[in-house]
Write the C-alpha cells for this entry.
Amino acid sequence: MKVFVLGGDGFCGWPTSLHLSDLGHQITIIDNLSRRNIDNELEAGSLTPIRPMGTRLKAWREERGRDIAFYNLDIAKNYHRLLTLIQTEQPDAVVHFAEQRAAPYSMKSAYHKRYTVNNNLNATHNVLCAIVESGLDIHLAHLGTMGVYGYGTAGMKIPEGYLPIEVTTDDGDKVRQEILYPANPGSIYHLTKTQDQLFFAYYAKNDGVRITDLHQGIVWGTNTRETLLNEKLINRFDYDGDYGTVLNRFLMQAAVGYPLTVHGTGGQTRAFIHIQDTVRCIQLALENPPERGERVKILNQMTETHRVRDLAQLVSEITGAKIAFVNNPRKEDAENDLHVRNDLFLDLGLNPTTLSQGLLGEVTNIAKRYAHRADLERIPCTSVWTRDQHAGVPKPRMPEPTS
Ligand code: NAD
Ligand code: USQ
C-alpha cells in the first residue's frame, strides 16, 4: 500500500511510519515540523534525544534498506502542494496525525486557542477537500480522541462512536436511530476533534469518502520494536507541563526525584494505550477500511482505564516516588468513572500491552536513562483554563523538587 503519514515526525506518527514501512508499505511523511518549533517557543524539549528528520530517515535506510519520503509542508495552509502530492503520488491511504494535540497548550492564551482551531480544522478540512478534488478512492484514517465523549456516561460503557437512541414521533411511533455520541469537549484542543467528526460525517455522506476515526486514549511509553533498532530512531518523550501526558510525566518525575504532580484529588479516570499498540491499531485500521458509501467507521483506540491517583500510587510503589496533590489548573470533574467499549480492535486481533507489563521497563530504560536531559523548570503545568485563573486567582500550587 502507498500510505501518506501526515504528522509523521510526531510522537505517534514517527513510530507508525516505521512500523508501516517495515511491513512493506511505501511511506511518505508530510510534516511542517511545527511540533519542534513549539518546543522552541516553550523552551522545552523531548526527554529523549530525537534526531532531525534527515538523520532519522538515513538511519532507517541503513537498518532496514527501506526509503521513506519526506515533505515539509503545512497541510493547514499549503492546500495546493498537498493536492499536487496526492495527485502525483496517488496514495491508497492517508493517516492523519497532523494537528496541535496538547490540551494545556490550546488553553494558554487567545493566540494558542486560535492557532489550535485554525491549524486543526483547516488541516482536517484541507485533507478531505484534497481527497475529493483528486477523484481518488483514498482511505483516510484520522487520530481522534476519547475526549470527544467527555469522560463520563449515564452508567453505560461508552460505545464506539455511535449511540443507539429511540425517539417517539408525533404519531406515537417509536423510531430507532444511531447518532454520533454527544460531544462534550474539555478543552479547545478536544473541541477541534469534535468538529473534525462533523467534517468526516459530512464528507462520508456527501462524497463517499472512506474514513476511519480512531478515538484514542492517552498514549504512554516511548519506543516500539522499530524505534528500538537504533538510537537515531528514538521516539520523542514529552514531559513538560503543556505536552507531557500524565503517565509519562509521572515516570519521568519519579526518575528525577520530583513529587508526582497529581491534579486535585486525582479522581479523574482516563483511557490509556501503549505506543506499541497505537502503531498496531493503525495497521489494523488500514487493513480493515470501510466500504465506499459506508458511514464513518469509529473505533475506540484504548486498552485500559485508570484513575490518576491510582497511577501515581502504582508509579510510587515501583519507584519510591513521593506524591504531591497540587491545585488542578484545568476545569474538569474532580472525580469520574469511565467505562469504554473497545471490542472492535480486540476483534481485529489487538493483543494489548498492559501497564503491569511495560511500566518498570519504561522507568528504567527511558526515564532514568535520559533523566540527565530533564529541565525541572519545565515540569509545572502553568496553563490554566479560565479567565479567573488567568487573572491570577488561584494560581496552581506546584511542589518543590526533592532533588
Ligand atoms: P505530536 O504533536 O507529537 O505530532 C503531531 C505532528 O503533526 C507533529 O510532528 C507536527 O509537527 C505535525 N503537524 C501539526 N500540524 C501540522 C500541519 N498543519 N501541517 C503539517 N504537519 C503538522 O502529536 P502526537 O502525540 O503524535 O499525536 C498525533 C495525533 O494523535 C494528534 O492528532 C493527537 O490529537 C492524536 N492523539 C494523541 C494522543 C497522545 O497521547 N499523544 C492521544 C490521543 C490522540
Ligand atoms: N494530570 C495530572 N497531573 C499531571 C498531568 C495531568 O493529574 O501532571 C491529569 C489532568 O488533569 C487530566 C489527566 O491527568 O485529568 C489527563 O491529562 P493528560 O495531559 O495526560 O491528557 P489530556 O490532556 O487528556 O490529552 C492527552 C493528549 C491528547 C489526547 C488525550 C486523549 O495530549 O492529544 O487526545 O490525551 S484523552 O485523554 O483520552 O482525551
Summary: The first strand starts at residue 2 and ends at 6. The chain has a mean pLDDT of 94. The two ends are 50 Å apart (CA to CA).
